[in-house]
Specification:
The complex is a heterodimer of chains A (93) and B (272). A two-stranded antiparallel sheet of chain A has the order 1-2. Chain A has 93 residues and is an alpha+beta fold. The longest helix of chain A has 20 residues, at 18-37. Chain A is built from five helices and two strands; from the N terminus they run H-H-H-H-E-E-H. Chain B has 272 residues and is an alpha/beta fold. The chains are: A alpha+beta (93), B alpha/beta (272). The A-B interface holds A 7-8, 10, 14, 17-18, 20-21, 24, 27-28, 32, 35-36, 40, 42-43, 46-47, 61-62, 64-71, 77 and B 48, 51, 53-58, 62, 67-69, 71-72, 90-91, 217-218, 220-223, 263, 267, 269. Bound molecules: adenosine-5'-diphosphate and magnesium ion (MG).
Chain lengths: 93, 272
């Protein structure tokens, strides 16, 4: 270890955050570049899924929750639909 | 009723988004139900600073245009459970935001939240005007630098004439000065405007002084609002500012240059 390194030791201890910044940017920009080209498909997809579910049970559009986790290789889209109890569902049909 | 707070400045790059993320997180940590809205349509960045960029599905424009419900667009923070984020749209242009639309969003949020923070875009155009229009309070972010102080003065004028409170001739928007990127060593050397000078010119109550700090870049790299870094001076200064906002007394810290020892003078150690 050079004497310079010895005196600068403290800097080397701190974890490197720039690599995290790069990784986060690569993921989010990959997704943004795709959606910049075409129309964002998510609102449409959600609407169609809700319509499909509504064909079978009475649901409240406000009780549909969409959550997304973008990853580098894999993104997950979770759609949670709060279904009414059996009684309400029967009344609706 | 929720309090609507705009974080504004006129000038860009002074620390509005950094401050919005920090103050919102701080208020939520104090147990206040807080939502922070990104008004920078087309140039969204609050999601990155808050570290929720991978979880954005819908945004404020989707809500206003009826494509999504508000609760679907809100992102619940995973670190502080009383905190939510409403992202800006990245693809639409600024005209997608309308006064009526924003009013609807704020009214609906008012039912569930104690504080609604609006992270304003730079400038004094439509986006900035909409961000401040519904404000009850304003945090004016200012750097110790001539153009920033001038732009802050300009935005204070806008708050006093173009906000809803001004238009309806109600009590004025409550103004707070937040000086950021303050470098006491440079102030001491006479290279940078002094805190007293800024206060003299702007004449609004001082909420806090955030020192220039390397920890801010580290925070944005990792997507953690700097207020969560309790060891950094910037994090502590934001914590103090939030406490003052909530009515507590806190002495101003980090406004004097640190007396440097021989070694740090030699190797130029900088503030954490
Ligand atoms: N206290 C501070 N110390 C060092 N850098 C800061 C500080 N506050 C903000 N910055 C940096 O200044 C730049 C602009 O900040 P940002 O919050 O995006 O400003 P705005 O939203 O006003 O455009 C960013 O690079 C940010 O990391
Ligand atoms: Mg910003």
């Amino acid at each position: 270890m050079s004497w310079l390194k010895f005196f600068r030791g403290k800097q080397e201890e701190t974890p490197q955050t720039a690599s995290q910044a790069k990784e986060r940017l690569q993921i989010v920009l990959a997704h943004e570049r795709i959606s910049r080209k075409g129309e964002d498909f998510l609102p449409k997809l959600q609407k169609e899924i809700v319509e499909l579910v509504a064909k079978h049970v009475a649901i409240d559009a406000g009780r549909v929750n969409v959550s997304l986790e973008r990853g580098g290789d894999l993104s997950t889209l979770a759609i949670a639909v709060e279904l009414p109890g059996p009684e309400q569902a029967q009344r609706a049909s | 009723m929720a309090q609507v707070i705009v974080v504004t400045s006129g000038k860009g790059g002074v620390g509005k988004t950094t401050s919005s993320a920090a103050v919102a997180t701080g208020l939520a940590q104090a147990g206040k139900k807080t939502v922070v809205i990104d008004f920078d349509v087309g140039l969204r960045n609050l999601d990155l600073i808050m570290g929720v960029e991978r979880r954005v599905v819908f945004d404020i424009v989707n809500v206003i245009s009826g494509e999504a419900k508000l609760n679907q667009a809100l992102i619940r923070d995973k670190r502080v459970d009383t905190l939510s984020i409403l992202p800006a749209s990245q693809t639409r242009d600024k005209d997608a935001l309308t006064k009526e639309g924003v009013k609807g969003v704020i009214e609906e949020l008012s039912k569930d939240f104690d504080y609604i923070l609006c992270d304003s875009p730079a400038g004094i155009e439509k986006g900035a005007l909409l961000a401040l229009y519904f404000a009850d309070q304003a945090i004016v972010v200012t750097n110790p630098e001539v153009s920033s102080v001038r732009d802050s003065d300009r935005i204070l004028g806008v708050l006093q004439s173009k906000s809803r409170r001004a238009e309806e001739k109600r009590d004025p928007v409550k103004e707070h000065l937040l000086v950021t990127r303050y470098d006491p060593a440079r102030v001491e050397r006479g290279e940078m405007l002094k805190l007293d000078d800024i206060q003299d010119i702007l004449r609004i109550p001082l909420l806090g002084v955030i020192p220039e700090s390397e920890s801010v870049l580290k925070a944005s790299n990792t997507g953690n609002p700097v207020i969560l870094d309790g060891e950094s001076q910037a994090g502590q200064a934001y914590k103090d500012a939030v406490s003052r906002f909530l009515g507590e007394d806190r002495p101003m810290r980090f406004i004097e240059a640190e007396k440097k020892g021989f070694l740090s003078r030699l190797f130029g150690g900088r503030a954490a």
